[in-house]
Design a protein that fits this description.
Layout: E1 10-13, E2 23-29, E3 32-37, E4 43-47, H1 48-54, E5 55-60
Antiparallel strand pairs: 1-2, 1-5, 2-3, 3-4
């Protein structure tokens, strides 16, 4: 599955963040992907391989 996310895209993940939100903003793209929770603002850094497994869909593309 090809995910067309880029910087500032809003993505929906398969699992929720502990705050209860499952939408995140992509704030860094590279070997690692850094995402920010749209509810509480916490950031998470994931390897691209793991991120591609955990993403459900891209909601908006910037």
């Amino acid at each position: 599955m090809k995910n067309n996310y880029e910087l500032n895209s809003i993505v929906k993940m398969k699992k929720q963040h502990p705050c209860g939100c499952d939408t995140f903003e992509v704030i860094r793209v590279g070997v690692d992907i850094k995402i920010k929770c749209t509810n509480c603002g916490r950031t998470i850094m994931l390897p691209r391989v793991d991120f591609n497994k955990k993403i459900k869909k891209v909601i908006t593309e910037e």
